[in-house]
């Protein structure tokens, strides 16, 4: 299956190392312990929240505890969010509302969806935050007490000032993702309302400009009343800066526009293939003369001009300058090797070395590229060893990893092939250990080539982080694999050959688990008891009190609540709702339900990181 997968927002099927697992074991643990199970609960603890949401009460009901684990707000919710400025979203019987810090319901649980309250800089002026709410397929805005600010008549809303809102034609499209706070940068800079026109309404809901703009985006995080508007939805659309009354600010229009980054007072713009920047008043601050400009951050932006690249300040003055170096984004370049963390590139044919920045190790070792092969060279210009490799990551202070004849090996600092041979698979050394694979067996070796663990048939997942650190999966989650753990596992390696029962990360007090007797998925609580019977072909984790499940008898995906009943907040569907798949053609004569199961079952599940 050659396809590109992306997760839909809010659906936990693939969980990264800071996902919803966080080391909660299958044994019941007291509230407030160091092994809290859900990401939201742990996030609240790390953020120093006084009231911590948790769904680990009896029956996986949700409530709030203090930092010592004492119950403060009783467990009467299907789902509970963190407190922001004295308000927290909750879900009750499938509907959303908000409570104050005493647990009092200050916004009735009457909405099909609801965003968190925003914390824009104008809150002092307007008396508190605002939240978006969904009623049926229409969105509106309420204040902290549940009073209407903009009635629910719209398809999407972007706040641009204290008293003005951009609104898209209804209905609301759930394909655009969950409702985000009005101050959310992503929803302000790239509001998604495909095929809908935008207008402007005032506080209270009266029209200022009826829907007329094909595309819009806020100019900045400030509620200054300025926004970009495009004259079409096509790729050649022209953008113009507008005021909150719908009138243009000046006569300039552009082919491409960006949002002002916080504290920078510069928005990058492009016209006729020339790049420059405007300030927050819409004035040209950097002349449109560059071949390309990136975002301004910390007072500077990257630029390219006439084969040179570097950095400019906010007035367009050049701070640094050099020849353009190839990068992964260059269509004519191919990543070929590394010296430490510095990538080296060749042309797409793999015949010519590109760029001029080719670093050396402190001892002078470097890479030579000839006839499509990489050779490790000493400071004196001698090969070490005299072998041309398909791929090399030259490490200055330890063994380098190399590819030769489609197999993998390691070269020591003095140019010797460690272990004297190559392997089917290998991962680079980190902390004095490396993992290798040969004939389906897995091993850990030291820098001298000695086997520290294995060979054995590994029956669980192993990952490497961006820094190269190894982690290996246990029942409680992923744990760091270092020399100490390798020594411990070498005394009892059988634990690594025992297959773990497939399970998704903990979420809101439950974990999805495969029942190996029936081959179906259900949900277990902290005692490892099935509280939602295993009767599904595939599932997601719980999110805001509901989870997507695939019913084999209905041949549909539906949302269920924590009692296992179908939630009517979203329609059932034959297509899988968990993963966006790009560049994918379903097999001929395969129904959408089966095709969706193939996709979901092909996505890796990582349980989380153990404490």
* Count of alpha/pi helices: 5
Spatially, the strands of the biggest sheet line up as 30-29-33-34-35
Mean of all residue-level pLDDT scores:
88
Radius of gyration, in angstroms, nearest whole number? 28 Å
Strand portion: 35-45%
What class, by secondary structure content? mainly beta
Q: Distance between termini?
A: 36 Å
Task: Report low-confidence residues grouped into runs of 5 or more.
Answer: 1-36, 120-127
Helical residue percent band: under 10%
**Overall geometric form:** globular
- Please give the number of β-strands: 48
Main sheet specs = 5 strands, mixed
Describe the structure.
- Helices cover 6% and strands 39% of the residues.
- The protein is mainly beta and 611 residues long.
- Among the domains are: 258-325, no CATH class; 360-497, no CATH class.
- The strands form 14 sheets. A 5-stranded mixed β-sheet has the order 30-29-33-34-35, with no helix packed on it. A 4-stranded antiparallel β-sheet has the order 5-6-7-8, with no helix packed on it.
- Strand 25 (292-293) and strand 26 (300-305) form a beta hairpin.
- The chain is globular and about 80 Å long.
List keywords for this structure.
disordered N terminus, five-stranded mixed β-sheet, globular, mainly beta, four-stranded antiparallel β-sheet, 611 residues, 48 strands
Provide a brief overview of the structure.
With 611 residues, the protein is mainly β. The model is unreliable at 1-36 and 120-127 (pLDDT under 50).
């Amino acid at each position: 299956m050659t396809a590109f997968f992306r997760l839909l927002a809010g659906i936990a099927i693939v969980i990264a190392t800071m996902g919803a697992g966080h080391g909660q074991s299958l044994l019941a643990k007291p509230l407030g312990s160091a092994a809290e199970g859900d990401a939201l609960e742990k996030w609240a603890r790390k953020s120093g929240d006084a009231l911590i949401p948790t769904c680990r009460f009896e029956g996986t009901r949700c409530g709030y505890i203090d930092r010592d684990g004492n119950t403060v707000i009783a467990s009467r919710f299907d789902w509970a969010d963190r407190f922001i400025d004295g308000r927290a979203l909750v879900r009750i019987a499938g509907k959303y509302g908000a409570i104050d810090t005493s647990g009092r319901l200050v916004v009735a649980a009457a909405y099909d969806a609801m965003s968190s309250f925003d914390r824009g800089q104008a809150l002092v002026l307007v008396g508190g935050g605002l939240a978006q709410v969904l009623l049926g397929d229409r969105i509106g805005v309420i204040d902290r007490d549940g009073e209407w600010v903009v009635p629910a008549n719209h398809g999407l809303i972007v706040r641009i000032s204290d008293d003005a809102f951009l609104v898209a034609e209804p209905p609301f499209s759930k394909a655009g993702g969950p409702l985000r706070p009005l101050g959310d940068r992503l929803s302000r800079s790239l509001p998604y309302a495909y095929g809908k026109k935008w207008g402007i309404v005032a506080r209270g809901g009266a029209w200022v400009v009826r829907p007329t703009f094909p595309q819009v985006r806020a100019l900045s995080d400030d509620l200054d009343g300025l926004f970009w508007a495009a004259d079409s939805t096509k790729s050649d659309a022209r953008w113009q800066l507008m005021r909150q009354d719908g009138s243009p600010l000046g006569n300039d229009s552009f082919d491409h526009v960006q949002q002002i980054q916080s504290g920078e007072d510069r928005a990058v713009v492009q016209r006729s293939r020339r790049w420059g920047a405007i300030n927050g008043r819409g004035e040209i601050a950097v002349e449109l003369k560059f071949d390309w400009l990136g975002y301004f951050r910390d007072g500077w932006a990257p630029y390219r001009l006439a084969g040179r690249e570097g950095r400019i300040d906010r007035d367009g003055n050049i701070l640094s300058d050099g020849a353009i170096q190839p990068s992964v984004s260059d269509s004519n370049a191919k990543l070929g090797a590394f010296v430490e963390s510095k990538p080296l590139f060749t042309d797409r044919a793999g015949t010519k070395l590109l760029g001029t920045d080719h670093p050396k190790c402190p001892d002078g070792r470097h890479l030579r590229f000839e006839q499509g092969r990489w050779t490790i060279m000493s400071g004196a210009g001698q090969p070490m060893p005299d072998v041309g490799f398909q791929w090399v990551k030259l490490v200055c202070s330890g063994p380098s990893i190399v590819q030769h004849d489609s197999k993998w090996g390691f070269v020591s600092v003095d140019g010797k092939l460690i272990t004297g041979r190559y392997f089917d698979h290998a991962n680079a050394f980190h902390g004095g250990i490396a993992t290798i694979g040969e004939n389906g067996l897995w091993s850990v070796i030291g820098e001298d080539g000695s086997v520290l663990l294995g060979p054995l048939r590994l029956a669980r997942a192993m990952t490497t982080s961006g820094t190269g650190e190894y982690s290996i999966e246990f029942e409680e989650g992923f744990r760091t694999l270092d020399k100490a753990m390798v020594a411990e596992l070498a005394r009892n390696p059988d634990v690594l050959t025992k297959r773990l029962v497939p399970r998704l990360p903990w979420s809101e007090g439950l974990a999805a688990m495969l029942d190996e007797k029936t081959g179906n998925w259900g949900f277990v609580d902290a005692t490892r008891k099935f509280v939602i019977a295993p009767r599904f072909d595939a599932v997601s984790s719980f999110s805001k009190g509901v989870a997507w499940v695939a019913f084999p008898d209905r041949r549909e995906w539906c949302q269920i609540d924590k009692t296992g009943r179908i939630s009517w907040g979203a329609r059932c569907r034959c297509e899988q709702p968990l993963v966006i798949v790009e560049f994918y053609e379903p097999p001929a004569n395969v129904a959408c339900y089966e095709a969706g199961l193939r996709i979901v079952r092909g996505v890796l599940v990582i349980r989380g990181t153990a404490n």
